[in-house]
Amino acid sequence: MPETPATPAIKTLIEVSQLGKEVTTGNTSLTILQGVSFTIAAGEAVAVVGVSGSGKSTLLALMAGLDTASTGSVRIAGQDLFALDEDGRASLRGRTMGFVFQSFQLLASMTALENVMVPLELAGVENGKVAATALLQRVGLGERLNHYPKQLSGGEQQRVAIARAFVKSPAILLADEPTGNLDATTGGQIIDLMFELNRERNTTLILVTHDEKLSARCGRVIRLAGGRLQ
Amino acid sequence: MNLLHELRMALRLLMRDFRAGELTLIVVAVIIAVAGVTTVGFFTDRVQLALNRQANQLLGADLVISHDRALPTEMVQEAQRRQLSVTQMLRFPSMAVFGDKNVLADIKVVAAGYPLRGEVRIADKLYGEERRAIGVPAPGTAWVDERILSQLGVAIGEKIAIGNNNLSIAAIMTQEPDAAVGFINAGPRVMVNEADLAATGLVQTGSRIGYRLQIAGSADAVDDYREWVVAQMRPGQRIEGIRDARPEIRSALERAEKFLNIAALVSVLLAAMAIALAARRFLQRHLDACAMMRCLGASQGQLMRLYFVHFALLGLAASVIGCVIGALAQQALAYWLGSLVAVDLPRASLMPLVQGVVTGLALLLSFALPPIIALGRVPTMRVLRRDLGTPGGFGVAGYLLGYAVIAGMIFWKASDVRLGTFVVIGFTGAMVVAGLASWLLLKMLSGLRNSGISWRFGIANLRRRPLGTIVQVIALGLGLMALLTLTLIRNDLLNAWQASLPADAPNRFLVNIQDDQVAPLKRFFAERKVAEPAMHPMIRGRLVKINERSVSAAAYADERAKRQIEREFNLSWAASLPKDNRILSGQWWPERGALPGQFSMEDGIALRLGVNLNDKLTFDIAGTPVSATVTSLRKVDWDSFNVNFFMIAPPGLLEGQPVSYVTSFYLPPRNGEMLTALIKQFPNLLVIDVAQVMAQVQKMITQVAKAIQFVFLFTLLAGLVVFYAAIASTQDDRIQQAAIMRTLGASRAQLTRAHLAEFAVTGALAGLIAAAGASGLGYVLAVKVLNLSYNFSPLAWMAGVVLGSVGVAIAGYLGTRRVLATPPMLVLRELA
Question: Which CATH class is domain A12-229?
């Protein structure tokens, strides 16, 4: 696919409105996120930054529908996430989102190829092997298709995770500290790869990080402090 | 996602998990359970059938119809029409004459095909080498037993006269399959060919001839024929089959069945434990994967369906492998035991295979269900926060299905409510007690926290996850208990069983001893250095009334009940309870001053005749009615071969009635002269030879003991798998802790000591529980189920604790050794 420049925000893909999250433990309640509102257009690359405990990961979890909000809403292409039940959110995720995590989250009992095939298999796509192989080759792991996660280095594991995130060409890619477990050189390569693929596939990228250099590569930065937008 | 696609995906997940070694433990547990159940299934189906047939050898057939007149030809034709093997036999007493000597012999006239079951063994000279006889005596010849030779002074090749026919003695009979039938075989025996019968001129009106029609064939065909023939039978005709086999044989067979079923049950229980532990571990290792799949769009239902199908396919595959192993194992066993059983083993049905697959699937799915539910309910947030823990699969309630499945299986396999209840309650109780005991012991261990770092870390590890530790201790305890039961208790039980029938157990019964013969008979034995046998009084009486109701055979549907009513009972009296009798209900009378108006009745006959405790029975003894109340019901160990009675009264009730005495003694083999002298001195005595029945029972015990050892191999394997599963259940956690400790500077030696401390304590706790459990199990099995006496083995306690702590420490050390040699970062990354 030829490289295309990120298209300017024409259409709102994600709409976060008055989002809040509170957790209660015993008699004390803790506000993790409060009154967060913003929109993200299709094709945008947005970094969510903040110090530890600022609520970055919680915001990502809520935007992905991995957790439920205490207040407010998240709309993905107009669909209110929290109006859906757990399975409805899972289905929406399966159709629209890809994930890259700090801890890779590869399935230990599966080879690299099989890990990349899983999203296709879950969606009932036949013959996912071809697409998965092509993508692994694209991320430079063509020779390591049949290796298990524990036989791969950290950088290689994250490449598999990226291939898995892109294999269904999702509209949105959510990445949670994708270089957190990697050294600077490897981390840099991983980020380059992610941005390349993002451009190739015109994906909307939401990147949670505390790395300012990394956030600078994104078109827009959302800053969180104490659970609020700055 | 459509069903077919889900099925394919489940299959792919299964293959991937299998390849990655995630399922090995579960597969091994299912295979062992299924192989054990299938092998025992084939046993009950095949070897037991063979043992039944061996019991049939005592009849010489599967079914015998007898009458004192020639049996109707339709019975023969019908049997032939049904493709059953048929042969006819006649038996009558007649004089055998040689020169001027003669003796009253038991003449047996046989035709081609005899015997249909078992074998006749013959020798060419007195005490010569015996061999299996081929066919029957040739026309013009006779086979005789040693007593004919010694009493008539005749030799092989010489002729004896039977009626008007002279027959040449061709061989000495050392064994006949149906010698013991009816036990009335006091006379020396002569076997002749049917072709010679007419020439004897002995078959005349009024002759005392017993006709026996012998039938054999497949079990189903024989059953069908039996049904047909019972409808045709006239008064006086009798039918005997394995169902009517002597109580000694039945009793031994029942015990054998119980032993085998216990072996199979224990392996199923252990396998269930291993499956539960392994499935739980599978859950813990797949939580992240499932959270990730939820993240990638899988719904809860989809995950649960995927894993349900995954486990169902796994269960099916493992069950099929288990069945194949079971089938092969029973083949090997059949080959091995076949030479001992001496009859062709009947073909097995496919039923054990069906049972095996059902067992495997039921076990796996019921115990994997809670983890499957938990996997479906994994919070998606786990992808971001691993500390979210393990979702519940309805907690303990989730395992209720598994418990119900196991309990159902126990009752099904035990096919005995008493045995089933013992096992279910026993194991439930054992688990609860073991759980409480390990919780208490764990609490007490906190006192050890002030000792060195290794101990402290080890003990802290145990206390950090109390539930995991308790489950582990119980599982290890059960595994060890199985091992102890197998190594120590099994031998005790089998020895107790074999000891219940020692080699010098009485093998001859003497009946019809008159009052004035008691003293001379005792002298006779004393002169020959034979221990003085106990004389039991015997009075014959007919049961005429139960309470105020007159008794008639017509009122009973059961054949044996009818026969019992038509015959006279043998009644006896005794002050104390015979040693192989056990009171089931009511009370035995005091040794002195017992009220005379009481009866103690054997429970089997009471059940058959519909007699209950406190019923009043009236016997007609030589024209005098004698009434008494049934104040106790007894269980009699018929396979002890002691003299036993259905009815016993306290002293005082029956004295004064016409009495004779009965006794039993051990006649060593090749001591025919003593028997001859006995009969010569006391010609009225009836000698009953139970040597062959006893030999048969002893042989069965030996065979079954071997079979049980073999089946227990599966139980042993299951015990080892539980052992392994229990250690593995906390291994990941232990490895991670160790890696963290290593990063903090703990040396390998320190960690090794800590692990050894942890394992040794766990093992010792498990060993204590195992020893208590094994002793309890041994006691209950011996005393309550198998009716054997049992002595507690102190060795079990020592072995339990030592085997537990050392065994678990070694196994645990081997499991963690590799990890301690690996750089901690690698471990942490692998577990991340």
Answer: alpha beta
